[in-house]
Amino acid sequence: MAPQTSIPLTANILGTIGTVFWCIQLVPQVWYNWRRKNTDGLPGLMMFLWAMCAIPFGVYAIVQNFNIPVQIQAQIFGTLAIVVWVQILIYHDKWRRWTASLLGAGLWALSGGVEALLILTLRGPYNRGVEWPIILVGVVAAVLLAFGLLPPYLEIRRRRGRVIGINFIFLSIDTLGAFFSLVSLLTQDTFDILGGIIYILTMVLELGIFASHIVWRIRTRKLHRRAKAEGIAFDDMPEAKRYQYHDDDDEEPDASPSTTIPVAVTADEGVLKMEEGTNVVTAATAETANTTHPGVPDETVAKLPSHGPREEGSVQSTNLEEKESKP
Q1: Is 273 helix (H, G, I), strand (E, B) or coil?
Q2: Which of 56, 87, 149, 320 has the fewest Cβ atoms surrounding its Cβ within 10 A?
Q3: What's the gap between Cα 289 and its chain centre?
Q4: Closest alpha carbon to 304 in 268, 279, 254
């Protein structure tokens, strides 16, 4: 496809709107991460792939001579993605701030150098009619963008549809930026298919993230009402955990009661020992213990000291570790 020779005013206006959205899209996410000092649920691989995606995306937009706002858009997009990636290294991976910051600055400089080199290398052949290299660059940009949005889906699956760590203001702005950028391409004299695919993939995958969380909220609406009525956080409810994790290892362990069999009562210890396990039953009185456990001989039941008034026939269960004395 030949480069654009003239850009209509409408395309420039729509492209500018899309660029403004993509200039500020990750700002809410940066603030969200900084305020919470936590990036759980926001995959570092997502932001790294987005930062790498900006290189071929910028090359493709400049060599194809897209409208100026779209050309600038890729550079800002990649810069903000690197900033968020550095935050993930600091808050989630516990890197030292200076180490992570220097790594991010180095990656940003390297990305700019690689992009400039590719532009200078591919522009000449493209102007002479050799199109396959720039088409390949556009395909790489689309693939990296799509792959960047796959890690959040793995997190979503792990949490049974719940989305955490991703700021929905950022996601909304990003989707709107892709929409206006796509429309700007539609209003150009010639629609660029690969450029359009990049924006369409962004919108579809991000709308899928929205849909997943909405469905999760519908599924857990009763639990949310209960949590609000009881004045507790949703995550503090025991029933809420099964809606957050998919792996069996993360499920709550089965708390079924153990079955124990009393076999003897010693006068010195005043407790009913069990054949297996560490659970013991302390009898309130000798008569109660003998009535509750008729299989225990009367002569082996010891009277225990009273610790205050108790209802007759009550048995107090405690978890004590049975210690066996060895010679």
Answers
A1: strand
A2: 320
A3: 54
A4: 268
Give the tens place of pLDDT for each residue, 43-86: 999 999 999 999 998 999 899 887 788 788 889 889 999 999 99
Angstrom CA distances, 130 to 4, 125, 192, stand at 16, 5, 16
d(CA 60, CA 74): 10
| Token pair belonging to 202 | 């962004």
User: String of b and e for 64-90 (b: at least 16 CB within 10 Å)?
Assistant: bbbbebbbbbbbbbbbbbbbbbbbbbb
Find the range with the poorest average confidence among 161-165, 171-175, 294-298.
294-298
Q: Dihedral angle at the C-alpha atoms of 66, 70, 73, 74, nearest 10 degrees?
A: -40
Separation CA 106–CA 187 (nearest Å): 37
Say if CB 49 and CB 205 are below 8 A apart.
no
In eight-state DSSP terms, residue 191 is -
Closest CA to 274 of 282, 301, 304: 282
Region label for 270, one of left (φ > 0), alpha (ψ between -120 and 50) or beta (otherwise): left
Beta strands in 12-169 (DSSP E): none
Q: What is the pTM of this model?
A: 0.66
Task: Return d(Cα 211, Cα 78) in angstroms, integer.
Answer: 26
pLDDT (tens digit, 9 = 90+) per residue, 269-326? 444 444 444 444 444 444 444 444 455 455 444 444 444 444 444 444 444 344 444 4
> Is 249 exposed, middle or buried, given 0-12, 13-18 or 19+ CB atoms closer than 10 A?
exposed
